[in-house]
Specification:
Layout: H1 11-33, E1 41-44, E2 48-49, E3 53-55, H2 58-74, E4 87-95, E5 101-108, E6 110-113
Antiparallel strand pairs: 1-6, 2-5, 3-5, 4-5
């Protein structure tokens, strides 16, 4: 016998359905790709150099230097206080003649903005200037 089961779709119709579905998917991808991209962007400020920190151990001096950098960068907004987001960063140490260690951290603090050209997360938008009040003519 023909071998078709009741309720089955003929082979030609099945191939046509798959082809039409493929075209619909491709069209959907093309249409979606025409939308403006929305990606997180990095917003960076000028380099921040923390004060040099002297401690009896290098580990303590490194920790203090990092803490100083975080505080200094944090004055730009909480989003900028993360060392891992900074670029052009360096943490350098040297051992002084008296045996103490001096470390200094510097780097360009960066925050992440979810809107291209926008403010980083955790940073309030700038306050618009207030319009000047007009005087009353007498």
């Amino acid at each position: 016998m023909g071998g078709r089961h009741p309720g089955s779709i003929p082979r030609g119709a099945a191939a046509l359905s798959v082809g039409m579905l493929s075209v619909a998917v491709v069209q959907g991808v093309v249409i979606m790709s025409m939308q403006p991209a929305r990606a997180a962007t990095r917003v960076c400020r000028d380099i921040v150099a923390a004060s040099a920190e002297d401690k009896t151990s290098e580990i303590a001096a490194r920790q203090k230097a990092m803490s100083s950098w975080t505080l200094a960068a944090g004055t730009l907004g909480p989003a900028f206080a993360l060392w891992r987001n900074a670029t052009e960063k360096s943490l350098s140490c040297l051992k002084l003649q008296d045996g103490t260690h001096r470390c200094q951290a510097y780097g360009r603090p960066c925050g992440i903005s979810q809107v291209p050209g926008g403010q980083p997360l955790g940073v309030p938008p700038p306050v618009p200037a207030k319009p000047k009040a007009k005087g009353i003519d007498a």
